[in-house]
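Example record used in the benchmark description.
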Amino acid sequence: MTSYQVVVVAICFILNFNDGIDVSVVSFTGSEIATEWSLSKSQLGYIFSVGLAGMTVGSFLLAPIGDRIGRKNTFLISLFLISAGMVCIYFSQSYWQVLVCRLITGLGIGGILPNLATLVSEYSNQKHKDFNVSFVQAGWPLGSILTGFFTVWAVPEFGWRFTYLMAGLISSTMLISVYFLLPESMVFLIKHQPKNAREKINAVLSKIKQPLLDDMPRKPEVWTSPSIKNLFIPELKNSTSLLWAAIFFAFLTLYTVLSWVPTIAKDSGMPFEVATYLGAILNVGSFSGVVVMGLSIRYFGIRKVIVMFMSLAFFVMVVFGNFNLSYVAMFVLTFLIGFLVQGGFNSFYPASTRIYAESIRSTGVGLAMGVGRFGAILGPAVFGILSDAGFSLAARFTIFSVPLLITAYLAYRIPSKNLN
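Model output (structure tokens):
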């Protein structure tokens, strides 16, 4: 890895860090939003879920166009949507305005995540590719951790809207940074050959110490954009189907936990600061789990890591929901839930990049995450509905731990040999 490759990976890490801020801020401020407008648990669950619905639509509509207009342009469009959605929440005066703004923000986030995995995979050498793709995903929980600490200070001083204004300004800064600093995908430049493509490619090749191109390869006379049909050719059909299903069930539990843990803690009587720190600990575990996962797959393979993490997460979730715990035990188990659930889930990013070839990678990763996000939409909303229906915390946590075992089984069954 040259220093330039490291810089590209670092920029992608910060982009994911920014997404962590934009997704998690609503979980840390959810109780304050609910208090201001006297929302039920179901209505609060819809706020959590509508942003995830936007991410799903973004994965379907924005992420695949990275294969057509380039990764960089997709990032710029996505960051504009995120910035606009976050800043507009600062000025919101009703529950419905917050829902619309969260939908817009989610659209942008959904366009960024799959293209990050693709670009990092392309700019990494073979030795570090899996780790780099996994490591970039650790930016998300790190952004969430710092959001938690910032919220503890900012909400009592300036109110919950201020956190969204700051998040929007950070996204705007990232938009400018991407425009000036992030290179375009070389695979995209070779296939589409826009103006000055060879000069752009050689500029990158010189920075990563590779031979320069004397001439561009012949451009295909007809360029067919990747489509969903490419993901269901005979050699990919079973892998795609099982991957989509596994990600769906993983998302179902992951985003339920990430969305509701701080609110559950506050409802249990924890002071605002302590409950917010519990949410931050969840993300500390997530960050640690993603880093350890990235190192583990070098030695055990992606498939075994997913199965191990998800199976252990099932037991930790059951214990957390079914026993009366001290604050110390709650913090320890919350850390482990983040470590195992997020670490296991993020294994699907390097898994997806291994299953699909470069020419369809953005489409493959984007659609896999897009389909899976239906689980992310469903989970937080159903958790809120079950709460209003009188289901105990133990029952809800038990119900939402089962999808982790299903995820482990489906991941084990994916036939792609590249996951071993």
